[in-house]
Structure formats: C-alpha cells, structure tokens
Design goal:
The chain is of the alpha/beta class. The protein has 11 helices and 8 strands.
Amino acid sequence: MTRLTAPLGRLRLGVNIDHVATVRNARGGDVPDPVRAAKLAEAAGADGITAHLREDRRHIRDADIERLMAEIGVPLNFEMAATEEMQKIALRHTPHAVCIVPERREERTTEGGLEVAREENRLAHFIAPLRDAGCRVSIFIAADARQIEAAARIGAPVIELHTGAYCDAHAEGHVDARDAELARLRDMAAYAHSLGLEVHAGHGLTYDTVRPVAAFPEVMELNIGHFLIGEAIFTGLETAIHRMRAEMDAARAEAFDG
C-alpha cells in the first residue's frame, strides 16, 4: 500500500463544551460549569476548546467566553453567526480562532453548512476585520465544491466540513448513503487542500464514525462535542476524550503506515 504523506501536522482534537452549558441552563444557576469542563478537556489532551455563542444564548453565555479567554491554556475556537453583534464580541476578545456558522433560532443544533456562494461579498467584508485582528477564520460548510471555491475566494484560510450527513446515514444503517457521503467528504477535503485551504471537519462524530474521517490526510482538525459530553455522563470526560484521541490516532497511523 502506498504510504500517505500528511500535508500538514498532527491531527488536532477540538472539544466543544456547548452542551455542558445546555445542561446548566436547563435548570439555571452555575452548575455544571462549562469552563470547568474546558479545563478538564485541556488536561485530558484536547488541542483546543470550541464554544458557540448563539444569538439567543441558549447554552454558552457571554460570561463563559470571558472566562474561557482568561482561564484556558489551549486555543479557543469561537463559533458564531455572521452578525454585527458577534463580530463586535469576537473583535473585543480576539480568540485564536473564529468559525462562522449558519444559525437559525428554531434549530436544535447547527443544521447544514453556511451558504457562502450566495453571500460572497458580504462574508468577504465580514471576515476581513477578524483576519486583520489576528483571528484564524474558518467557514463551516457542506462538502460541496461550489461552497469550497467561494470560501477560498473570500479569503477564509480554513474550512470545516460538515460531517452530519455521513454520521446520520451511519446511525440510520443506510450503508450506500453513508459510503457516498464519506466519499464526498474525502474528495472535497482533497479539493479544498488543493486550493490552499486548511481543512477541518466535525458534527455528529462518534467512536463509530470518526476513524474514516480521521484517516483523510488533508484533515488537520476534528471538532467534537455533543457525543463526548454524552459519553462523559457514563465514563467521565477524561476517559471519553482519551478514547476519542485513541480512535483518531489509530486511524491516522493505519492510513499513514499501512
């Protein structure tokens, strides 16, 4: 088998702590504390922390972002919609990374990728101040060539491919659809890399679905949240992260050394 060469470095794991805040907010008060979860994730080997500050503040709050910026030692990936309010917050904090995602009040979680191709001019102007401030800007998009090309044109250095359709097909036992979605992700990761974009991926990944995506040599970072927080209820966050890290590392080793 041909030995693959990684275009960049080690596969990173970003841990999304949104749903610790979801549990906290369900009852009110301050527990469980998402910042405590972020620190535990960092201690367990997470390469970064992801937090989505939504317009309706349904999980992460403004004070959580303040504390994350002050208290964690790994990079913060600040997920946000492309709104003036969120741009101002991001520019005030200048986190390491800003990921622009679609957002609708009625959705339970982020559904699908951002429509970049139809909003190129607006998004190009929106991300420019963030880049100028030193934030690494990524765009959360579907594995679609048109969206990838638009992301490259507006000057986004990073894309994050939405893996939800692949994970949903796997969970529903639709093997053909799962394989088709996985092939699309693989092809679009390679295409994005050929355009000079750094490639990340995430949404819905589990122990059962992470290995094929982790094996793509162009993917440099996976962002995983809901599944890890759910597993942490039963095994603890450290154990859940260690196992996910092991799955990712094993897939990478098999792909590069097989």
